[in-house]
């Protein structure tokens, strides 16, 4: 999904977008966040990435219509419930990534 960042002169007679760029959720090490990633949240808390709101990607059982109003962020399933993170921070670390399954 592409998010448009529009810059322009607000006082101009006709305003138009001047830049479009893709926004991706990435860990601090530069790897892209993926659905199914087992992650360390900091302290003794771990979780599983079940939604990437920016990209409209969700694990089975999670639905875009339940989360898209937030517009950005990650959904991480934890022992204490689902947690929404605005963006990955230095505490969020990839622990394991699921093996790719067969194509459907």
Notes on the structure:
With 104 residues, this protein is mostly beta strands. The protein has a domain at 25-96: Roll (SH3 type barrels), CATH 2.30.30. The chain contains 1 helix and 8 strands; from the N terminus they run E-E-E-E-E-H-E-E-E. The strands form 2 sheets. Strands 3, 4, 5, 6, 7 and 8 form a 6-stranded antiparallel sheet that branches. It has a two-stranded antiparallel ribbon with strand order 1-2. Strand 3 (38-42) and strand 4 (45-52) form a beta hairpin. The longest helix is centred in the middle third of the chain and has 4 residues, at 64-67. It is globular. Mean pLDDT is 80; it is low at 1-21.
Give the SSE map:
Elements (H helix, E strand, L loop, with lengths): L2 E2 L15 E2 L16 E5 L2 E8 L4 E2 L5 H4 L6 E5 L2 E5 L7 E4 L8
Antiparallel strand pairs: 1-2, 3-4, 3-8, 4-5, 4-6, 6-7
Q: Summarize the biggest pleated sheet.
A: 6 strands, antiparallel
N-end to C-end Cα span: 22 Å
Low-confidence stretches: 1-21
Q: How many separate helices?
A: 1
| Top CATH class of the domain at 25-96 | Mainly Beta
Taking all residues together, what is the mean pLDDT? Answer: 80
Per CATH, what is the topology of the domain at 25-96?
A: SH3 type barrels
Number of strands: 8
Radius of gyration: 17 Å
**H/E element string?**
EEEEEHEEE
Overall SS class: mainly beta
The name of the CATH architecture of the domain at 25-96 is Roll
Helix content: under 10%
Which outline best applies? globular
Percentage of β-strand residues: 25-35%
Briefly summarize what is shown.
This protein has one helix at residues 64-67, and strands at residues 3-4, 20-21, 38-42, 45-52, 57-58, 74-78, 81-85, 93-96. The chain is mostly beta strands.
């Amino acid at each position: 999904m592409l998010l448009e960042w529009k810059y322009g002169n607000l006082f101009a007679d006709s305003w138009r977008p001047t830049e479009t760029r893709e926004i991706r959720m990435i860990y601090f090490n530069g790897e892209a966040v993926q659905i199914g990633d087992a992650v360390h949240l900091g302290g003794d808390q771990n979780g599983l990435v079940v939604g990437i709101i920016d990209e409209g990607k969700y694990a089975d059982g999670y639905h875009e219509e339940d989360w898209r109003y937030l517009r950005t962020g990650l959904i991480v399933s934890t022992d204490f419930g689902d947690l929404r993170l605005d963006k990955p921070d230095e505490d969020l670390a990839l622990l394991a990534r699921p093996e790719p399954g067969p194509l459907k």
